[in-house]
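Next comes one such specimen:
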Amino acid sequence: MGFVPYHPTVVPQEESLAAVRAFREHMDGRRTVRDFDPDRTVSREVMEEILTVAGSAPSGAHKQPWTFVAIESKELKAKIRAACEEQEKEFYASRITDEWRADLEPLGTDFVKEHITDAPWVVVLFAQRYGLDADGSKHKHYYVPESVGIAAGFFLTAVRQAGLCSLTHTPSPMKWMAEILERPPNEEAFLLLPVGYAAPDCEVPNLGRKPLDEFVVWR
């Protein structure tokens, strides 16, 4: 691998403050969207850029232990939705706790998952528990959940930068996802991420975010 010189652009502090403040305002407008416009498409070129950003995330020992499966096929999205809703029906009927149900109530979620078939793209992010070489031999990956979580954050940031919307969907359990998408045994489904434009009549919960002094400790 070796090393190469790195000379990042140095931005004067006053410009840095203005830039990060503008970006903070931009990201503050990001919302979780469940209602997508089924009539608006997103080009593969845009998706390639979003996924390239996600793939630039840092990872343990630079193993990049993630696979993003980008799905445009209507038939495959319908198959995934049917499987998700089957799991979600059972979750809402018998697996959810009273506390969890109360926490979800303000969000208006249920077992119906239109976002999977309405969004032009569905991306399923898989975590590679270990690496597989071409000859089938295994090699170790490090800090896999942390690395994949960071990649997901990069992905969501790129989606926002592209003027699009997404949702972090975690149907549980998700072992069947690897079977539907024919993934190798070292991969586990981590997140389902629809990508598209919000529907014209889309509404989101009127939620606030914690102020800085509630989640930052200065020392």
User: Anything to note?
Assistant: Strands lie at 66-71, 121-128, 130-132, 138-140, 165-166, 187-196. Residues 128 and 187 are 4 Å apart (CA to CA).
